[in-house]
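User: Hi! I have a protein structure encoded as tokens and I'd like to know what sequence might fold into it. I'm fairly new to this, so please keep things simple.
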């Protein structure tokens, strides 16, 4: 039986199977960006937390938690990830539309988070946003002319006549005609409304645009026309884009570089074609495997991630992706467990975590905080389905046989202890027991960024450390040709 986690000796700087290089002495670090001097926006350790000030004292929602990257002048940086990972919050915080809890957003020596008065208005002229829903972002009581002219009025741009001429110029620039000036948003199609939103964003001649899923609400044929418009405008006006999307095919078409975000943090960042052709992070590999057809140009097998991301109120202490990672490092003391056993342990862990994250009523939450029992639901049935025995019983599932249990000894004892905690209603304790027994370095240490390849690409994964097999090698074995 081969070990997917067996440490492999590497010389200093030796390249792994997925192109990663580790620094001498263990954990690597991201190499300096050779294009840093060209950056129009520099994001450093940016954090945006939301606190609801509830009387139960809940932890804040860590929507963005320690993100760092540069956006180079004239490029399109794609930002992708699952819904709820913090993409839109990151974009709004970069623009100053959301207040940063910590960190910096620097543009031409200005810290956007600390701007006020005249400096803030200057930044607002330089940076604008195109919103996801063109219908919701336009005021139905205003004509298109009034909508596009509004930023000009707010910034006292030119004379009234010059503002009117500027609006007509912008409408022509985005492919609308003069008579559209007098119409209302409800008289337009979705694509036309988005063109109005783009014209409004361009009114003050900004250098930088945040495009928050600008085509996700549009039909496919309309998406293509809007994407082509954005590319033409970028070439003509020298714009810089932060393009937020969940459609990986669209991002590949428009983005020069792509940043992959998971649970408030960026886990991989690099040139688009390099990331799509040979993703370094397990999460990126999983995302790209879900693209229908052969968009990635590879023959990688589909990787299905179990469950949903952990709650941003209580993210994992170590790697944010560890609770779902298909390349997670497994503990040596349970090296004898089969791939099937690990799959079912992961499934049970997911059940406990989902129950912990589930929305519950105030009465039930108070009971849990006071240590009172709550309903056990169908935990016993879940354990029976996964492992072939009922808590407290000794029967095995059909097909496994009494002499070939999936779990025995310390492994089974740990599962029984976790199940007992869950049956008392303490799902958090159940999750902690499983993590303590079957967890690894991935659960304990937040990974640093590593340089992967020679193009400045970075990836944050413990498996890039010296002494571990690369994520690609492990995932190929576990999902391509069967587990160990």
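Assistant: Happy to help. Inverse folding works backwards from shape to sequence: for each of the 484 positions I chose a residue that suits the local structure. Here it is:
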């Amino acid at each position: 039986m081969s070990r997917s986690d067996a440490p492999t000796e590497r010389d200093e700087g030796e390249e792994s199977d997925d192109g990663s290089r580790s620094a001498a002495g263990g954990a690597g670090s991201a190499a300096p960006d050779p294009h840093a001097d060209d950056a129009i926006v520099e994001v450093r350790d940016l954090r945006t937390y939301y606190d609801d000030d509830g009387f139960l004292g809940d932890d804040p929602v860590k929507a963005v938690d320690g993100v760092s990257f540069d956006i180079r002048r004239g490029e399109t940086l794609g930002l992708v990830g699952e819904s709820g990972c913090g993409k839109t919050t990151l974009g709004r915080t970069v623009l100053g539309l959301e207040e940063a809890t910590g960190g910096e957003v620097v543009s031409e020596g200005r810290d956007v988070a600390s701007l006020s008065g005249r400096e803030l208005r200057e930044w607002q002229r330089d940076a604008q946003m195109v919103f996801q829903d063109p219908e919701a972002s336009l005021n139905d009581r205003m004509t298109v002319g009034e909508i596009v002219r509004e930023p000009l009025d707010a910034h006292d741009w030119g004379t009234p006549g010059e503002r009117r001429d500027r609006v007509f110029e912008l409408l022509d620039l985005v492919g609308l005609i003069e008579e559209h000036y007098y119409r209302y948003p409800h008289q337009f199609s979705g694509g036309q409304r988005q063109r109005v939103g783009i014209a409004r964003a361009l009114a003050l001649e900004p250098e930088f645009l945040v495009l928050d899923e600008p085509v996700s609400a549009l039909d496919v044929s309309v998406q293509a026309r809007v994407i082509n418009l954005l590319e033409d405008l970028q070439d003509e006006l020298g714009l810089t884009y932060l393009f937020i999307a969940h459609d990986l095919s669209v991002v590949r078409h428009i983005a020069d570089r792509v940043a992959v975000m998971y649970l408030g943090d960026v886990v991989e960042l690099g040139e688009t074609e390099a990331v799509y052709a040979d993703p370094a992070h397990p999460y990126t590999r999983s995302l790209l495997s879900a693209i229908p057809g052969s968009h990635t140009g590879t023959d990688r097998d589909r990787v299905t991630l179990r469950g949903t991301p952990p709650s941003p109120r209580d993210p994992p202490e170590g790697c944010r992706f560890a609770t779902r990672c298909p390349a997670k490092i497994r503990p040596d003391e349970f090296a004898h467990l089969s791939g099937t056993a690990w799959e079912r342990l992961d499934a049970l862990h997911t059940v406990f975590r989902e129950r912990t994250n589930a929305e519950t009523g105030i009465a039930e939450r108070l009971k849990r905080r006071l240590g009172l029992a709550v309903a056990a639901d169908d935990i016993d049935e879940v354990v029976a389905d996964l492992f072939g025995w009922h808590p407290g019983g000794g029967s095995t599932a059909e097909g496994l046989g009494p002499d070939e249990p999936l779990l025995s000894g310390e492994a089974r004892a740990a599962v029984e202890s976790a199940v007992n905690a869950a049956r008392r209603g303490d799902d958090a304790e159940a999750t902690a027991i499983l993590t303590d027994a079957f967890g690894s370095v991935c659960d304990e240490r937040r990974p640093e960024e590593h340089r992967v390849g020679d193009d400045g690409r970075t990836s944050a994964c413990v498996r890039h450390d010296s002494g571990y097999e690369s994520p690609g090698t492990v995932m190929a074995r576990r999902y391509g040709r069967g587990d160990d």
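A useful reference point when you look it over: The domain at 36-255 is CATH 3.40.50.300 (Rossmann fold). Feel free to ask if any position seems puzzling.
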